[in-house]
Amino acid sequence: MPPKSPRAAKSPAKSRTSPPTKQRASSTAEKSPAAAKASPAKRRPVASPAKTVSSSKPPVLVLTFATEETAYFPALRASAAAQGFRFEVIGLGQQWQGFIWANSLMMERARQCNPDELVLVLDGYDTLVTMRCEQMLAKYDHVCALATEKAGFAPPSPRGRWVIFGIEHPRTACTWLYWNTMMRMARRYHLVPSHGTYYLNTGAILGPAKHVLTYMEQTCEHAKATGNKDDQNTANALFWERWVHPEEVSVSRADAPLPIALDMLGDLFYCHCERRLAFLLFNLGYRPNNQRATPGALELRDGAVFATWAGKPVGVIHGIWNTNLNAVCAYLGYPYNSNYHKKVSQPDIRMFQEVTLTVLVLLGLGLVALSQPEAAMVQDATRTGLAVVGIALVTIASGAGAALQRHLLG
Predict the structure, then answer these.
(1) Total of domains in the chain
(2) Is the pLDDT confidence value at 25 over 60?
(3) In this structure, are 268 and 368 located in the same domain?
(4) Are 46 and 154 in contact (CB under 8 A)?
(5) Is 183 in the same domain as 306?
(6) Residue 286: per-residue pLDDT
(7) Coil, strand or helix at 65
(8) N or C, which end of the chain has less CB nearby within 10 Å?
(9) pLDDT of residue 302 exceeding 60
């Protein structure tokens, strides 16, 4: 859900971002062209979601939280309008006070919606809409139909409509080493039991307003009771401890306070990041605020963004960790600041980053120490190599490498 506001780049003179709009403390609505009538996917008899009612306004509201006009927020706003969605932002001009406070403001807006209205809740600084509204509606109906089939029941109101969450790391998008190290740690952090393979990403949520409101109420109540300040950790704790279906881990149980389904096949959402462990560790040290993700993970063609692992177009791309989305913005014509460096927002990933940098520094210093003449166990021929590697590691992990890269490459 809403992250803390990142800092803007230091060199706005080269910015390609549109001029900031006037900031307001209240909800700000953005008009977008009316979407074409949705083309519903073919549905099974047991999985028939309620039909979208045609109206003069786009049928899906994009709702986000942002306190500043920075990062990829201008691109998100432009992407929603370009793809035929309504768009509203909550919190502009206000001081960040934590996700419980942010969700309380989001809940106020959700209560004003028609209970059955579809709402797409997105992180404000690192998500982009990359699919037409009518196409996303058809895919949403398809995902809901699959969820109903797996669960063995259909949500009664609105009929057959689930709240869809993306999964953070699809198995086929990860290397073996990444899956068996980073994913193991992430699942443990997010309280995922041994029989759960994936965990929820809360940066993109699509579902009826009444259920989205219930989700926010439940997570805020749980966070207040436990003191947990990580919204994604809170959501996963609730799902895996209380709500998950006893026989199918990708949907919630019938008596859960809201119907939740995971987008297991990547029909709607994709979390984009570096999933090669060696490259990830290197880049956390070398350019921690400007990660370029795995080449080939995305295909930019036919006016759309395709996730290679799923072989299908992406509805919303979420640049998790510190992933740079400039190439996507440039391809689709969304405004962006070429000098902006995205920072890691998640507390657990920031901690992992700090530990990684500390280990690299200590390892580098250890190698430099072994290269000294006093280290009798090391042959003279290897001293120079140890010194070079050690100095390189310290340079990378200390942030000097990132500063040098920004100086050389801009």
Answers:
(1) 2
(2) no
(3) no
(4) yes
(5) yes
(6) 62
(7) strand
(8) C
(9) yes
Computed over every residue of the chain, the mean pLDDT equals 78
Distance of CA 390 to the CA centre of its chain: 35
Rounded to whole angstroms, the Cα distance separating 133 from 130 reads 9
Residues 245 and 393 in one domain: no
The closest alpha carbon to 270, from 215, 207, 312, belongs to: 312
Confidence band of 245 (pLDDT split at 50, 70, 90): very high
What's the pTM? 0.74
**Of 305, 332, 359, the domain-final residue:** 332
Per DSSP bridges, beta strands 316-319 and 127-129 are antiparallel
- φ, ψ at 231 (rounded to 5°): -65, -35
Helix axis angle for 347-370 and 182-189, nearest 10°, is 140
Considering only CA atoms, give the Rg of the chain. Answer: 23
Residues 6 or more apart whose CB falls under 8 angstroms from that of 243 comprise 252, 253, 256, 257, 260
Give the number of other CB atoms < 10 A from CB of residue 24: 12
> How far is Cα 353 from Cα 2, in angstroms, rounded to an integer?
21
Q: In degrees rounded to 5, what are phi and psi of residue 291?
A: -75, 125
Q: Which of 103, 87, 96 is nearest to 30 (CA)?
A: 87
Identify the domain containing residue 198 by its residue range.
12-332
With a CB cutoff of 8 Å and minimum separation 6, the contacts of 163 are 205, 206, 207, 208, 211, 212, 215, 258, 259, 260, 261
Q: Are residues 176 and 306 in the same domain?
A: yes
Q: Based on the domain organization, do 272 and 377 belong to the same domain?
A: no
- What pLDDT score does 40 carry? 41
The pLDDT of residue 371: 57
295 and 400 housed in the same domain: no
- Is 109 a member of any domain? yes
Report yes or no on 338 lying in a domain.
Answer: no
Quick: pLDDT tens for 79-111: 999 999 999 999 999 998 888 899 999 999 999
pLDDT classification of 186: cutoffs 50, 70, 90: confident
Q: Cβ–Cβ contacts within 10 Å for residue 307, how many? A: 20
In this structure, is residue 284 part of a structural domain? yes
Out of 130-144, 278-292, 339-353, 360-374, the most confident range is: 130-144
Expressed in angstroms, the distance from the first to the final Cα of the chain is 31
